[in-house]
Amino acid sequence: MVKILSEQMISNKKYSGLASASTVLLQRADDPREDDSVRDIIYETFQKLWFSDDRKSKIVMRTSKRESIIQSIDGEVSNENSVVITPLSSEKYQTKTKAFASGPLATAKQMVEVLMISRCPDYLTALVKEILFGYCEGDKVNKAAERRKRQIQTQKHCALIVSCLIEELLSFEECRNTSNSPSTTGLHLVALISTLGIFAKASPVLLMNDLDTLLPYLKADNGVSREYEAEIVLNVSNTISQVAPFFNKALLRKMCQGTKIVDDLVKITYNFGSVAMNAAVEALSKLAAHGDTDDKNPQRKRLLKLASTFCVYLNQMKDSTDDFSKVKAGIRNNVHRALTCLGSICRFQDKDNTESTNTENDDIEFLTTINVEGLHWNNLALSSFALFEEYLGKEDILTKTKALRAMAGIFIAHPRILLAVEQNGILDDVMSEKSHPQVQLETLICWREILESEELRIESGEAKRKMESKENITLSQKISGDQDGDASLIGACCTQHSQRLFEMALHVCEKIRLHSLHLIEILLRQGLINPMDTVPHLLALQGDIKHPAIRSLALKLLIQEGTKRPDMLKQRISAGIYQSFNFQRTVYPDHIRITALLSSKGSECIFGQIFKDTIRSSRQQSLKILRSLLGLFVFSKNEEIEPKEREKKNEPKGKESRIKQLPMLCFAAEMIAHLPYNHLGDVLFIVHHISSIISLEGVSLVYRLVDFLKPHGLVSKESVETDRKIKDSLEKKSQTKANLAVMNKKNFNVAKFAELCAEASSLVLLLRLKSFLCDAYCGITVTRLREYMPNEKEKIKDRGISQPSDMTRFNSVIHNSKENSKDSFDPKLLIHQYIEFRNTMRVNEEFMDTIDEVQEMSDNSLNDLPEPIVSKKRKKRNSL
């Protein structure tokens, strides 16, 4: 289907739904579960659709101006020959539009349309990076020259697309239609600037000579709604952060001339939310930390002045109240803004241009000193942390979370402070169960942000470049990779709390579960957590039927781990099934019943995808799982409860009550009924195993029930021994007052009868399951059941079965006979369970009699054959 859609998109570039189709394909390519071959088809499609042009002459005409800034695929820039490109005038732009209608201009417009539909630039960013640097990396070595040539052409084509986007932006401003609604205008403007930001992230040099076109948008006076203004200043600030490291002295002086850009960035920190504020602080920090600046440059002074302003304000307000939820909204918002902005300044502070005095000292005393009056770059992090700790101790939750987020900024810039905080016990407090759920959630978000920023720092090569730029670095430090030291500290601190993280992954709050999964995903990717301990918790989250996003993320991680370590996943799936049951029982206590199905109407099992991808390919493993689940129904195989736990619960020694096991048995039976089998032998194994259990346990239970009920006159043992098909008196007169009166007598042990009925209900589940599978799969015939042997070799004709499309839901409902909030039982429900057991046993006996009759008829027909023929068949069988 993807290939057909790709061919249609390439052959019909004027298709009106091209932007929607492109959005869908980009989402498929960004999905980690997608097959690599499909992803290659998608990238190849966009390579032909957007990043190649047959009209090479026109491309060269426009690309020649940008040759000076495209020296290599890595984005190295020659500052001496850089040229400032002046966008075309509106008249010239209109004349050039026809020439580029089917080339880069069309590509630029389509990319803008895709962003207007998806509102997520991550898909396009991943595509552009892959096309520029990663596409066809798997080619052979002898194709390296051809691949590099193609990437250089793509780089030039991207430069041309950027030029068209700039001209499209200028044309949009000149011809802005006042009749359009502000929302439409704002969405189009945001999409244009976001598309330019995509190319800035992929290859910053592409935007270096066009950045002055975007700077006026920092003033946030663009005639659109405040929501769109925030997105505009966010994208422009991010673009400045990406491009600033490539500035030379002349360009940096030109950009910061008169400090207008600095003033605009500072105003953003006072007027917009935390996301735009963080972007503005990062841009200001990148300008202040440029290699061609000194300590006296205005950018650094302005940034330090901003930090001092917020430090002084926080120091003044820290003792004013312990609960900022009770003060005026303006004061509370100012405190939160100061915490957020100061945390961002500490995060993006350039450590290379500051002396590391006490930031790497593990002594807790250095973290409690507030020095606002003598604030400078060397003590900014420590003074700020002391302030943040003060606000973390406040009573209102929102102030706590803001302080915690500000601390995360310091931890990112100075990981050794994180080690000192770990020793102080602050992390244990904010992650504990006693902490407010909102604080726990913020802790998970901060952990994720810290790990991702450190991962980006290492993988981008920034850490290695900074390490090699140090003058006093030794050869041994270069060889050992000392740039990973901070990452190791962060990972070690996070690993210390892995057990608590697993508990939070199964938390009652769905937001905590989701962000715990995101953090586990990063830890698994970085190898900082044991997959063997993680898999059961991921399997447990397959039971999160009310939140598909959480379940899908857990399933994605399971598939990834199953691909890397298939044997481990197979070994841990049994434990995961029990975890899933316990998870639903804990998280959804008010739910009607625990279920193994995804929806209330469908028949898809929660473990269906995992069983299909990792289990059923091995029949041995598949039978092992089924044998484990069916073993729950065998009385003699029940697990013993620890004596200490029984003493706490005041229960008699012995096996766990079958009444308490019934919900788990219903869950297991429903799962067995709806797993996606692809081999008839699996279904035959289940039916055969159930028949064995019933033959051993069923008849024995019937006599145990009769022995219990006979002294009370509710059943006759002689009638059972004579013909079990005859109904007894309790079945005939089930709801009479006499029977109920007998059960209410003191000498009638209702608890024991309830336990026997619970055992009977567990066998009823098996008999229902047997009947359900025989009806659902057409290959389960009387003849096939008679011929089946558990140890027989696999038959080719049994392969390739699938679930019927019209499969009904298995009835796994067993009503609880124990009355709510009481220790008594409902006699009517107990009698109902007893009658259902006797009826299903009779139906099963009739079914088994039918099999015996078929067996007898087959034997008789074989004996009626002439002697020579019989002997030949026997000889043939013996030879086989």
Describe the fold and architecture.
- The protein has 880 residues and is mainly α.
- The chain has 41 helices and no strands.
- The longest helix has 37 residues, at 827-863.
- It is elongated.
- Residues 54-90, 92-101, 136-142, 355-364, 637-654 and 862-880 have low confidence and may be disordered.
Distance between the termini: 48 Å
Radius of gyration: 36 Å
Low-confidence stretches: 54-90, 92-101, 136-142, 355-364, 637-654, 862-880
H/I helix tally: 41
What fraction strand?
A: under 5%
Q: How many strands? A: 0
What is the overall pLDDT average?
A: 78
Class derived from helix and strand content: mainly alpha
Which percent bin holds the helix content? 55-70%
Instruction: Summarize the main sheet.
Output: none
What best-fitting shape do the alpha-carbon axes yield? elongated
In brief:
The protein is mainly alpha-helical and 880 residues long. It has 41 helices and no strands. The radius of gyration is 36 Å and the shape is elongated.
List keywords for this structure.
880 residues, mainly alpha, 41 helices, 0% strand, disordered C terminus
Q: How would the blueprint of this fold be written?
A:
Layout: H1 2-11, H2 18-30, H3 36-49, H4 56-63, H5 90-97, H6 104-118, H7 122-134, H8 144-174, H9 182-202, H10 211-214, H11 226-243, H12 249-255, H13 260-271, H14 274-288, H15 298-317, H16 329-348, H17 380-392, H18 397-413, H19 415-424, H20 426-431, H21 437-459, H22 462-469, H23 475-480, H24 485-495, H25 498-505, H26 510-526, H27 531-540, H28 548-564, H29 566-587, H30 608-615, H31 619-630, H32 643-649, H33 658-674, H34 680-709, H35 717-722, H36 729-732, H37 737-743, H38 750-776, H39 782-787, H40 827-863, H41 867-879
